[in-house]
Each structure stands twice: as structure tokens, then as C-alpha cells.
């Protein structure tokens, strides 16, 4: 197929138009892969989210001394280590962002508090671990 100069110019103009529209309507054109806004609907209280964490950061924050087979060892996520390994495998396979969440103080005062970690991809929650609740 032979490209005419006019067709080439039209394609360039169309490309620029699409780019300009994406700047104007950023939320519909650019995926916000780590945006936890979608997760808010799962909570009946306000919730705070961390910025994205690396696997190492999440593990460092959650190290627990566990007694296994008479030996004391530090394990990420303690009793939730198997769940963490599943979430980590999902993250390593599919990508996304690991984010810490904690519900507001009022939720803890009314025995409905929650804290833990979410795996978010393309703005959707694809995995979670609740590490604290009352």
C-alpha cells in the first residue's frame, strides 16, 4: 500500500487530536493502576491508603516471630504467611501495586476497624489480606 502525503498528514493530525483529548480527559484515557479509589466501596468507614509498597517494604513492616518446629523464626505476615505468599505470587505473575490500608479511628472505637494490604491492578482490587481487625 502506498501512503499519500495527505493520508500521512491526516494520521499525524489524528494522533495529535487523540493525545490532546487524553490530556483533557485524563481519567478515561490514562489508566491509574495504583489508584485505590475503587476499594473505598468495600468499607463502611473512611479509609486511608499508603502509597505503593514494594514486596520488601510490605514484608519488612509485617515481620513476626513465629515458633515453628521448636525453632523461632521471623516470618512476613506471621500466621497470614500463606495468604501473603499467594498474594505475592499473584503480584509477581500479574503485576499491580501493593497498598496498605487502615480504616479511620472511629471504626476502631466502634469495634469495626480493619487494616491490611490490597493488591490493586488497573484501579481494581485483585487481592487482599486483612492483618488487623476488631
Automatic annotation (TrEMBL):
This is Uncharacterized protein. The lineage of its organism: Bacteria, Pseudomonadati, Pseudomonadota, Candidatius Mariprofundia, Mariprofundales. It comes from Mariprofundus ferrooxydans PV-1.
